[in-house]
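User: Can you model how protoporphyrin IX containing FE sits in this protein?
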Amino acid sequence: MPMNPNGRHILAAALLLAAAAAGADEAPLTTQIVDALNKIYGSHPGFRANHAKGVVVEGSFKASPQAAKLSRAALFNGSTIPVTVRFSDSGGLPDVADGSAGANPHGMAIKFHLPDGSDTDMVINSLKFFPVASGEEFRDLLVAIGESGPDAARPTAVERFKAGHPAVDKAFATVGTPDSFADEEYYGVDAFILVDKAGTRQAVRYQMVPQKLVHLSPAVAAKKPADFLVDDLPQRIGKKPAVFHLKAQLALPGDQTKDPSQPWPDGRKLVDLGVLTLDKPVADSLEAQKKLLFMPTQLTDGIELSDDQLPVVRAGAYAVSFSRRSK
Ligand code: HEM
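Assistant: Here's the modeled complex, given as structure tokens:
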């Protein structure tokens, strides 16, 4: 599905913002991040700098009555909203084995096609929280990984980085390989603000919850065929829809919203926002994914950014990656 005009504005704005934020003699942070990703994985024309391997499917979303109470967004008014969804493996290798550790965390990117012709996006993954607090730290982690090849002296740059950032190993300990993209749980990680009809604001983090969660042991995952996840999903939903519940974890007053590496306590209330049903494989997924750009900042009235700056940095980096892969 081609990007709508709304998407083009967001792409141009993200690139301009990135250029304006950079010093005169230094590449913007977002360019530095994509350069660091390209250094780790190599450049693969036509593919994303991160989450290069994926599969596109379609379906619909129907919000629950509780969702309309939390947000006035058209997304949550209870009508049936068509969706385009791309599931992915992590990393910039288009041929990564789906069961390898490098394919974790798996991603889920959703474009909700609203009745007025605009889209609102959600870009989420299977990490329960992010390994670092900011875009700058993410760049530093990627640069450290790029400098820590098999011949690097110990402690390597990445070992030194992790020693000062304990959330990195903790975050990666929360992921595993699912037996299907449909049997995985995906987390929004970043905090967003839902705004209701009266203007009341509630900070939330999204969770996309499957009907069943099935993780494989690393030994079983390593023996799976390289494309088992991307091959499974279209076949599976051709026979029976994959169903998820979109949930909002509600912050309590005083919960911080700006640091995506600090999860809120498990006991925070979860509200069921509605049901996502995926029932249509896409005929040429490889071609379809080239034209798609999912942006964590592409929001609609009733959903806003919080003081978490990561989605803004992410949108800038996604725009840089999109402009490189569209050449
Ligand atoms: C500073 C932090 C981050 C940076 C710099 C970053 C960078 C990137 C880049 C460059 C891409 C390729 C985009 C494209 O070509 O369309 C990408 C894709 C993706 N990222 Fe991130 N990312 C960050 C954080 C996150 C977080 C927190 C999540 C989820 C909670 C996430 C989930 C995804 C997913 C699911 C995709 C694939 C989107 C698709 O299917 O088109 N990323 N990321």
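A couple of observations from the model: DSSP finds ten helices and twelve strands in the chain. The longest strand covers residues 270-281.
User: Helpful, thanks.
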